Amino acid sequence: MSPNPNPDLDGLMRGLPVKTEGPQASGTLLLIQVCLLWDGRVSYMIKKIHICVQQKVYIFYGPKHKGRMADNSTGDRAAAGYHKYKEDVKLMSDTGLEAYRFSISWSRLIPRGRGPINPKGLEYYNDLIDKLVKRGAQIFCAIPKKGEICDCSMGIEIHVTLYHLDFPQALQDEYNGWLSPRIIEDFTAYADVCFREFGDLVRHWTTVGEPNVLSIAGYDSGVIPPCRCSPPFGTSCAAGDSTVEPYFAAHNSILAHASAVRLYWDKYQAKQKGVVGTNIYSFWPYPLSRSCADIDAVQRVLDFTIGWILDPLVYGDYPEIMKKQAGSRIPSFTKEQSELIRGSADFIGINHYKSLYVSDGSNREKAGLRDYNADMAAHFRVSRNDTPSDKCLSIYQILGFGQFDKEDSLNDTERVEYLSSYMGGTLAALRNGANVKGYFVWSFLDVFELFAGYHSPFGLHHVDFEDPSLPRQPKLSAQWYSKFLRSEIGINIEKMVSPDEHEHAYYQ
C-alpha cells in the first residue's frame, strides 16, 4: 500500500529549516496549503484568457499551445472565471470561505510584460478584490452581537500569487524568459505594480508558485510552457537543453523572488502591513527499504525537491549534494546575491499532495548527458509493488492532487476522506509545534489542469464543461467542507497515526 498521507505533513513541517536572521526573522512562519481554511486557484486554469485587449500575449498561445494534453484540450475557455467571478465570489460566501488565494496574470495586467498597464485588467482585479472584501464582510459582520463593533475591513482574506506559469510572450520572445537574468528587473517592476495597485487590501503575497515545477516541467521534460527540452529527456520540444536549463530557470526565479521581497519590505510593508513569501511543490519521501542507500536517497530527494528552492532562502546557497551532482551545470550565487536571497521570506507555502516510496538510483549510467532527474538519482513508487519511475514529476502527473485522476462525480467521497485526512494531519502538526497559519484546498472549482486537461476534476464544485454557460454545482466535498468551516462537523485526529508511530511501524 502507499504511505498514509496523514503523518507526512507533520514530518514535513517539522523537518523544514527555519529562518533565524534577516529583517523578518521574528515573523517567519510556515504556511501549508488550521487557523483559516481557504481555497486557491490559478489564473490560466480558471479563466478564458483571450479577452484581454490583445491576444496571444501568454506563452500558452505559442506554437506548443495545442496538443500537449491527451485530449488536445486547452485552457482557452477553462472555467471562464473572468466572466463569472461575481457568481463565484457569491458561491465562496455561501460556502463559508474565510480566505481565498488566486494568481494574477502578468500578461493580463501588463500585456507586453513591461510598460503600459492594461486598464481592463486593472479594473478586473480591483473589482474582484473589492467583491471579496464586501462579500466577506457580509459573512462576518451581518449580525454583530449586542454592544459589539464589527470590524469588516478584511472580508474574505485575500492571498495573491504574482506568478504561476502564465508568462508574457513578448519577454519570452525577447530573452527566453526565466533563462535570462533580465527577468529579475522585469519581474520586480511587475511586482511593484501589483503592490502599489492592490496592496491596500491584499495582505498576503506569494511571489512565484511552485518554481521547482516551473523549472522541471517547463525546461527539462518540456510538458508545460515554454515547452523547452532536449532528447533523451524530452522529445517534443522545438528548442531547449534539459541538462542545464532547469537549473538556470530556478536560479533566476529565486533571485527574482528575493528582489521582489526586498522591494516590498523596503517600500510597502511598513504602510501596508502585509507579508510576502513563496510556494514550493513537495512530497514526502519514505525509503523503500532500510538500506543505507535508500535512506541516503530520501535525503537526496528532499534536497533536490524542497532544498533546491528553500535552502537558498534560508542559507543563501544550494544544498551541497546538488552542487556536487550537477557540478558546473548549476549556476553559483555571488556573495551579494547570497546576501540578497538569504532570509527573503516572511512565510513558506508548501504544496503537498502525496507521499512516495523512494529507492536509490545512483547505479544508473553516469556517463553521457545528465539532467535534473539523473542528478537526483532516485526511483519513485506510489506503492511498494509499483513499477518504479526515475522522474518525480511523472508521479506528480499520475497522482494529480489526491488520486482523483479518474472521472469524478458529485458524490466524491474519496475527496472528503482525503481532505479530512490532510486537515487532521495539519492539526496534528500544529499540536506538535509547527508554525502553521492556514490550509488551502485545491481547488474551489473544477478547472483546466496543466497536466491533465479537463479529465482530472479536483474542484469542490463541479463545472459542466459541455454546457456553454459552464454552470457550477456543489459536490459532496463542498457540502462537507462548508459544514466543517461553519463548525457543524469536526475531525477526530486522535485516531490518526502520529509521524513517529508511522515511521516506527514502517521500519519494523
From TrEMBL:
Pfam families according to UniProt: Glyco_hydro_1 (PF00232)
Stretch forming the signal peptide: none
UniProt GO molecular function: beta-D-fucosidase activity; beta-galactosidase activity; beta-glucosidase activity
Domain of life: Eukaryota
GO BP field: carbohydrate metabolic process
Keywords noted in UniProt: Glycoprotein
Record-linked Gene3D superfamilies: Glycosidases
InterPro entries reported for this sequence: GH (IPR017853), Glyco_hydro_1 (IPR001360)
Similarity comment: Belongs to the glycosyl hydrolase 1 family.
Protein name, as recorded: Uncharacterized protein
